[in-house]
């Protein structure tokens, strides 16, 4: 089993949710996140005062998949979250980590069947 953590542009969330549902991924966690990377922030104006924003808003999506499903989930996330044909700085990142055990708290399922 693998845990996928994808940091994406907020405007890509609905499209990604729909695409994941199409490939039968219906269980994941979504969180607001802020990050600092190669974009280095941007200038913004609030009530006539210009200020520098260094942390940019992102969405964090966490999901656990069985090993045989990993590549399908990764390519779906990558294709949907990318902006433009070749992608852009600020599109986000995808991290993949091993999961040793999964336990369904409300039931008796453990391991791959709990995913």
UniProtKB/TrEMBL annotation:
Gene Ontology cellular-component terms listed: cytosol
Alphabetical list of Pfam families matching this protein: P-II
Keywords per UniProt: Phosphoprotein
Molecular function as annotated in GO: ATP binding; enzyme regulator activity
InterPro entries associated with the record: N-reg_PII, N-reg_PII-like_a/b, N-reg_PII/ATP_PRibTrfase_C
Record's keyword annotation contains Membrane: no
Residues with O-UMP-tyrosine modification: 51
A biological process term (GO) from this entry: regulation of nitrogen utilization
Top-level taxon of origin: Bacteria
PANTHER family from the UniProt entry: NITROGEN REGULATORY PROTEIN P-II
Protein name, per record: Nitrogen regulatory protein P-II
The encoding gene: glnB_5
